Every structure is written in C-alpha cells, then in structure tokens.
Amino acid sequence: VCLVVPVMLGWLPEERIPGAGCCRVTLSQFRKHPSVSRVAVVMTLVSSTLSVVQVLVPDKRVRAAVTLLCAVVVGTQSYRSLKQITPYLGRTGLFIFLRQCLRPGLGETMFKWLTDHPGGPQLGAAKLGFVDCFGSLGLLCGICIYNKYMTNWSFRRIFVTAQLAYFFTQLLEVVLVMRWNLVIGIPDFLFLVGDDAFDLMVSRFFFVPMCVLAAKVCPPNLEATLCATLLSLGNFGVAVSGFLGVTICEMWGLVGDNFDNLPYASLAKACMALLPIPFIFVLTPAFTPNDPVPEHPAQYEDSTRRETEAAEAAEAIPDKQKDPTDSDKQKYPPTETMAV
C-alpha cells in the first residue's frame, strides 16, 4: 500500500518507463558499475550453492565447512570490489557482513522450548505475539536514546557500546534457559517482555548509526545501487548466521525433544557476540556521525593524533609564567620601617 498508492496518485517524481521497454533486459547498467555487479553475481552463485548444500548434504561438519567457505568468499569479494569505489565503503560493507554472520540464532529450537517443553515457560503463540508488541516500544526508546546521547560519539564508540549491550541481552537468554528468573521472583512472561524490548532497543544502537555511516560513505549517484548492495550483504550474513545456528544446535545435540544442552548452546551463542568487537576498531571509522567524511581513512586519524598532541603540549605549558621577582621576594623579605 505504501508503494502502490503513491504510484497510482502520481506522487513519485520518477518518470515512468514505457511499456515496451519496462521488461527489456539491458546490460548497460550492469557494465556501468562492474565492481558492484561482481558482488551481486558472487552473492547469487554462493547463496544458491549454500542452499543446495544445506538441503542435500547430511553431514553437519561438511555443511559447517561449506558455510564458512561461502562466507569467506563473499566477504573477500565484497571488500575487494567495494574498496575500488571508496576505501570507507569496502570496510563498511565488510563490517556489516561480518557482524551479521557472527549472530547465530537457535531459531526453531528456542521457539519449541518456549512453547512445548515441560521444563520451559510453555507460553502460547498469542502470548509470544503480545510480547512482540512491547518490542516496538523498545525500538522507539532505542531511537530516542541514540538521537539524544549518541550522535556526538564516534562510530567506534557507538558500535562497541551496542555490541556489549547486545552481549548482555544474550546473557539474559541464558538466565531464562537456566530458569534463574524464577529464582529471583520474575515470571517468565514479564521477563520475556523486558528481554524482547531491551533486545530491540539495543538493535537500534547498531542499525541507525550503520545506516548513517552507509549514507555518508556512499558516493553521489550511487545511492540506490549501494543501498541494495549493503542490504544484500546484511541479508546474506543473516542467512549464514542462521546456518551456523543450526550447526550449533546439532553440535550440542539439540535435536527433537532433547534440550539438555540448551544452556550451553545459549552461552556459546552469547560468547559469539563478542567476536565482532575487534573488527570494529579495524573496519569502522573514528569520526562521528556529525563529522564530514575525510578523503582518505588515514586523514582523520592523522588529524586527530595531531590535535591530541597539540592539546597535550598545551596542557604541559603553564597558563601563567612565574614572576621572576617572586624568588627575590622570598629570599629578601621586606624590612619593617621604624618610626622616627
């Protein structure tokens, strides 16, 4: 509805393509940006191969190895192709992809434990849907907090804070699986409401600045193409993380109604949330969302280092030079005048 109604009313400024040429395949745009086209071709081939392997190969080790190999191929090709446009774009695309890959989920296993397992909360689908309603409040709170307090932070500080907060949300899932929330007197439903709202709030701490960074590093006249490319990288990373989550479940024996090792799988998933932190310092820029984008990645770091050195040198110099006569006054104190 959001797209059809404006198009039918003629609100969109784009010119409509004639009927004869709207369905014709042209390769001019494909050749116009070969680096982006290579990324699209590689992701198409790799995603098709990965889907076939996940369906047809029964060995979990082979599937895990193929998944990691596909992730390496896509990450390498995307970085090599996008850095030809701008160095910042290559790093940004690679960081988006790696961060999404390192977020495995337990998927159906966790849902089945929440709804059917005798040792779980045994919540119905209606209650779980009601939990998602409170998650929307978390989204709103996350955006408000970002706009109020985090816009003057550097991208590295924002992403590190968001990743640590995400690690904390994963630990809350471990608390739920271990049933520690009942020990401290918090019902399952209320705990899930708070967990879901906090999780979605933390997700805004990453999503909003990442959109800002992608928009800042995107060259002119390539906005739509690179937006689709970065979103595709993120979606492919989500697919890879889903396959890795299946591998984690199989490694811990979470098959069928066996949930004995679910706490260990949840803890392993939480620890993987710390893996993207080193990539933040390597792949994300040091400037803030309000700063202009330097022409070269090292330019901002050099200027920042020079400003820091100048500030330290200024602090080393006293604000007011010491009066040279002070020592003489201390050495020869004034004598009292005798009254005549």
Automatic annotation (TrEMBL):
- Identify the domain of life: Eukaryota
Give compartment(s).
Membrane
Protein's membrane topology = Multi-pass membrane protein
Transmembrane ranges, per UniProt, are 128-146, 158-180, 200-218, 230-255, 267-287
Q: Which UniProt keywords apply?
A: Membrane, Transmembrane, Transmembrane helix, Transport
- InterPro entries in the cross-refs: BT1, MFS_trans_sf
* Cellular component GO terms held in the UniProt record: membrane
Biased composition, Basic and acidic residues: where in the chain?
298-309, 317-331
Q: Name one Pfam family in it.
A: BT1
Residue numbers spanned by region Disordered: 292-340
Q: Which family does it belong to?
A: Belongs to the major facilitator superfamily. Folate-biopterin transporter (TC 2.A.71) family.
User: Which protein are we looking at?
Assistant: Folate/biopterin transporter
